[in-house]
Amino acid sequence: AWTAEVLCALDRAMEIVARADWVRSEAERRLWAEQVRDPKTDELWQINGLGRDGSLLLSQGSANTAWNRW
């Protein structure tokens, strides 16, 4: 019986992954801060969302950057 549940869960996961924009918007909705402090310079950056590659999109005045953890 559990095999059918696993297959259904895998099928659902494939549907979700096919909708990358939806996954990204849901992740953005769960961001818990509006700003982040650069650990190297101690400057505050405004969080603008997530990039298609999962990077954190940031701005500071007219400067824009994207941070990747890896």
Question: Brief overview, please?
Answer:
The chain has helices at 2-18, 20-29; strands at residues 35-37, 44-50, 56-60, 63-67.
Tell me the layout of helices and strands.
Layout: H1 2-18, H2 20-29, E1 35-37, E2 44-50, E3 56-60, E4 63-67
What's the helix count?
2
How would you describe the shape? elongated
Largest sheet strand order: 1-2-3-4
Tell me how many strands there are. 4
Q: In percent, how helical is the residue content?
A: 25-40%
Largest sheet: 4 strands, antiparallel
Radius of gyration, in Å, reads: 17 Å
The separation of the N and C termini measures: 39 Å
Structural class: alpha+beta
The residue-averaged pLDDT reads: 88
Q: In sequence order, what are the helices and strands, one letter per element?
A: HHEEEE
Low-confidence runs of at least 5 consecutive residues: none
Beta strand %: 25-35%
Could you characterize the architecture of this molecule?
With 70 residues, the chain is α+β, with helices and mostly antiparallel strands. It has 2 helices and 4 strands; from the N terminus they run H-H-E-E-E-E. The chain has helices spanning 2-18, 20-29; strands spanning 35-37, 44-50, 56-60, 63-67. A 4-stranded antiparallel beta sheet has the order 1-2-3-4. A hairpin with a 6-residue loop joins strand 1 (35-37) and strand 2. It is elongated. It starts with a helix and ends with a strand.
